[in-house]
Design a protein that fits this description.
- Four copies of one chain form a homotetramer.
- Chain A is an alpha+beta fold and 362 residues long.
- Chain A has one domain: 4-Layer Sandwich (Chorismate synthase, AroC fold).
- Chain A has nine helices and 18 strands.
- In chain A, the strands form six sheets. A five-stranded antiparallel β-sheet of chain A has the order 1-2-3-7-4, with helices on one face. The first copy, chain A, has a five-stranded antiparallel β-sheet with strand order 9-8-10-16-11.
- In chain A, a hairpin with a 2-residue loop joins strand 12 and strand 13.
- In chain A, helix 1 packs across helix 4, helix 1 crosses helix 9 and helix 4 crosses helix 9.
- The first copy, chain A, starts with a strand and ends in a 9-residue tail after the last helix.
- At the A-B interface, strand 1, helix 3, helix 7, strand 11 and helix 8 of A face strand 1, helix 3, helix 7, strand 11 and helix 8 of B.
- Strand 11 of chain A pairs antiparallel with strand 11 of chain B.
Amino acid sequence: MNSLGRLFKITTFGESHGRCVGVVIDGCPAGLPLAETDIQEEVDRRRPGTGVASTRRSEPDRVEVLSGVFNGVTTGAPVCLLIWNQDVDSSDYQRIRFLPRPGHADYTAFAKYGGFNDFRGGGRFSGRITASFVMAGAIAKKLLVRCGIEVAAHALEIGGIRARPMEFDQIKASAVNDPLKCADAEASRAMTALIEEARAERDSIGGIVEGLARGLPVGLGEPVFDTLEGDLAKALLAIPAIKGVEFGSGFAAAIIRGSENNDPFALEDGRVVTVSNNAGGALGGISSGMPLVVRAAIKPTASIARPQQTVDLEKLEIASLTVGGRHDVCIVPRAVPVVEAMMALTLCDFALMAGLVPRVIR
Amino acid sequence: MNSLGRLFKITTFGESHGRCVGVVIDGCPAGLPLAETDIQEEVDRRRPGTGVASTRRSEPDRVEVLSGVFNGVTTGAPVCLLIWNQDVDSSDYQRIRFLPRPGHADYTAFAKYGGFNDFRGGGRFSGRITASFVMAGAIAKKLLVRCGIEVAAHALEIGGIRARPMEFDQIKASAVNDPLKCADAEASRAMTALIEEARAERDSIGGIVEGLARGLPVGLGEPVFDTLEGDLAKALLAIPAIKGVEFGSGFAAAIIRGSENNDPFALEDGRVVTVSNNAGGALGGISSGMPLVVRAAIKPTASIARPQQTVDLEKLEIASLTVGGRHDVCIVPRAVPVVEAMMALTLCDFALMAGLVPRVIR
Amino acid sequence: MNSLGRLFKITTFGESHGRCVGVVIDGCPAGLPLAETDIQEEVDRRRPGTGVASTRRSEPDRVEVLSGVFNGVTTGAPVCLLIWNQDVDSSDYQRIRFLPRPGHADYTAFAKYGGFNDFRGGGRFSGRITASFVMAGAIAKKLLVRCGIEVAAHALEIGGIRARPMEFDQIKASAVNDPLKCADAEASRAMTALIEEARAERDSIGGIVEGLARGLPVGLGEPVFDTLEGDLAKALLAIPAIKGVEFGSGFAAAIIRGSENNDPFALEDGRVVTVSNNAGGALGGISSGMPLVVRAAIKPTASIARPQQTVDLEKLEIASLTVGGRHDVCIVPRAVPVVEAMMALTLCDFALMAGLVPRVIR
Amino acid sequence: MNSLGRLFKITTFGESHGRCVGVVIDGCPAGLPLAETDIQEEVDRRRPGTGVASTRRSEPDRVEVLSGVFNGVTTGAPVCLLIWNQDVDSSDYQRIRFLPRPGHADYTAFAKYGGFNDFRGGGRFSGRITASFVMAGAIAKKLLVRCGIEVAAHALEIGGIRARPMEFDQIKASAVNDPLKCADAEASRAMTALIEEARAERDSIGGIVEGLARGLPVGLGEPVFDTLEGDLAKALLAIPAIKGVEFGSGFAAAIIRGSENNDPFALEDGRVVTVSNNAGGALGGISSGMPLVVRAAIKPTASIARPQQTVDLEKLEIASLTVGGRHDVCIVPRAVPVVEAMMALTLCDFALMAGLVPRVIR
């Protein structure tokens, strides 16, 4: 349902064109200094940029703390964070209420909720609800940093163009300022051209976001079902548009030999490490101490400005639909901070379960 | 931890070289006819075959029902299913207690459980524990069939060789009798050759298992976090050796355009369908009524009969290790029924949540 | 933590003197007509009356619906309900920050949250947070009524004075308008005198709230742990000041014989009933179809206007404390709608699990 | 359903006259020395004694460890404990299949599970399943002792005769050897006479079990819903025959004044304590550091050897029933170790959540 996590647990609410989007964070330790600006910063990263990829919907998206913080510090009580929706134009959606957009949840939401779903802008199924994930993720990241865990995501691939391999620090430093959140400036330029091309063709384009975490201790993850990979995959697949998740060598592991894929153990400063990291930082569902590497496949934005075939759900007849409104040609850059948030939330929950994060921060 | 599901909930226990592997199924409706042979059949499919891919460990693996069944019918009480371990040879493992096998959970389990983990045969992290999944999955499949839902998995790809596209019925009929669980006989032969080659080189090989479900109604899945895809991915990633999961067009969606990837809606016998099925049967985390398509990347078996570099965890020094014992060159065929089981378990839970499966079967 | 329920799940947030108190209801079926006034009505019942028992804090407590309702009907998305705090006077609390009030959670909250808890007015531990329970309960009651289940609570006993036994309908009709929510007008007058007496003595007084539910089908409750009684008791014990819960004959069952306590089965209009109802509507943790009867012991209000001994937590020395502020002499009447809410929430969750409440209301 | 707990989580299975009763303990830390005899000892305490109160069913009830223990130490994997049923005589039950025993779950189980429930000896609803609770509780107690927490229960009252007040140590020392588990020898003799009397009258008798815990730190309990009292009450109400639960002054608090019921704070060796303990060790759902005091009302055994009125569920007509078989006249003494077990399980879960119990015991 709308909650995620065990000891660090979030519950989200709100719709694209309703009054607000919000989240309640339960299990946040007491004693964490927390200002609205801390969260605002993360939320701003999710906003449509001035870049080529984005919609022109431009809300200020001002974060408000409704509970759980007293004198600038968390109290141990649930933290409720909220953004009021402001720049909402629902006029276009009323027209297409019974015309589900291909690739969207319009039809399945209509069927599941008997037509009572808020269809405006995708309602509860809009990408906008990921603002809740990012707000909660901002707190998770602050907690993780305190135990030496850093999370970073970047646009690894857009439309088939892939960034060259880089180190964690370089990615972290470069991706944040790139309009496409790609750490490789050259690839970013090529991606930009491709996005422009797709826009001109009234089409859209997808890609791959890679998430990295370092500083993880050995031992996070609760086999056999609440594995590090399983929980991460589940969390990531809550992001609309993600259709696949892989860890380490991932799908490539299906092709290579065991002798290539196995990561030999070695010693580094008396610490057990692996020479390679095809496992992507997890063995048996448990973190190995090596960097966590996860990749998520983002499908091309479903909303495209071309006529598409659909079905009129009222009249039950074939219809043609051209989606209006403001849409991203490529959602990948905006998905980057959301992937980071989902990783942070998942890791923070595991860190609490492992006793790594104290219940009171002093 | 070791439980999965909400209303149809399994709890697994047991180790590779302990006394048994078992599972408790909670939430199984009353009134389901259930014989040990029903479950035995599914478990037998997971056993190493006589084929090229498999280990020579050959236990009878006889399923016993310990509770929850009375007069051949489920009672509504928890069903406990058990297999006693018999053909256990732990001699080899004692020798390598402090020598973690590359690609295995030996090291992470050692670290997480302070060396108290049962290391024999991988203990709790052995593929053998998936027998528990298969036992529980057998019940889930029986319940699903009653609401018209069929699940099938097959070896889609081994070592890069991919079976040609086929229809659900054909896959279901052909894969089950193929030694590699591949529905395409020609591809199966090529895969066999590759496996022989890998065996000769004392190496191993991976592949891709594809899972399919048809007969799903529209509406299974509980957004935003308990999505159909998210829960399936989490369940599948509990299978040792799975390193990636994708739905429908999956990672390929990252390359194609929105106009290609979107599935246009159409009508078929008055029912809303999609012309293509790039979504893989789910939109917005909710089943669309189209066949569910999921693919899982299986890494090459970590146990290979070659010397590999590891670290002696006692002496903290580099060591060389040659894994003895009996191991599958390619785990893909044996993973097929396990993928089916995890799909069945996940779908059954959603079916119960949707009220599709009654609490009492009359 | 701050969530309750499985399929009908609430998550609460907010503090006594913070910005608001609120609740997110997850799992509410789509299609339920819902107006702010529906919820307002229930919340108003919890407000301090003009009667003898109550505090003089008097906020309008206006309920706002933040999400999950569209065109006056629930959408199936989480419903967030909020009350902004207005009439807040925190001046008195600052003074007693380190002086925990006897009988309150001040000390345990201080210790558990390292002194970071919002101590103003009891913060998260104030009775005010039960406004969240009542808001959510209002929705649960609307759902229950649709399956013929009615819930009613009343002040059965105050300060040892007990109302005479009455029928469900009479209780429901009479209690609601009585200033003390006692269905027996004569007892109510005696209770009033007792409360006046306690007030004059700067003391406080407790009592017993009885909760009743009728129209329950046979079969609600999920043994062995999620029993009807167990879940109700847990929910009720979340109400501050409740120190005991009993069902049917309850503690009196400890004294009488089996032959007296057993309820003989009988037939009524072809339906199985029991002649007496010492079981209180549940056998083996499952509803029997007879009226549910639960009683909750409410301790006397901890805040009294007399000097009491406490410990200065800063200086670690004995101190004297006279609690100022506005407090109820007897919390029992205000607890009545809260008990009703907790019963409704628990029963609604079971009703959803039993498939009694549909996922879409048409 | 059949699981309880969050981080220390048990899942029970088995029936009175099925093959076995068992339990899976998930979340048990690695490194705990554990022998079957440790658990056997606790289970033996639940067995019918030679005393006046008990049934003559006398199984050896030998505990077997099926998983999770290796070389005499827990591994961190789920621990499955099992007792095979042996001395089972089901002949009597077949005869009364459609004749629900008053005061038993026969009727509600029949209705909930559509008549598919295992009715022999009450099946899943028999007191016998509490052997599972006791097995799991034995582990919980071992873990609690390591953090200085001791749990003790005793028969406080039988048939209205109450033991005189005593100190924790005295209760712990005396109750264990008393045939009725009553710490007051004189009261025990009077209770015995009463039980003999009830037996002679072919009747049964109930009582009150009191549970105590000392050594609790301040801070256990997770408000607002997962309170110490709420979780304890829920766990205790899973014990068949318990109809009420109270903490500290409990129902008596409903009668006395706030000035009497409030526990003044004081200092003892620099530690904050309360002068009295009417709160029963918890304030605001959080342990206060004072001894935990809980009392559970046990109804008189429902099975009595007198003719009682019931309904024939097949013919739907009034019938008379005389329950045969072997039954306890008074279940109170046998409930004592079960209350202890449920307290230990609940406290152990909270202790894990509070980080008090390490994940690996070294």
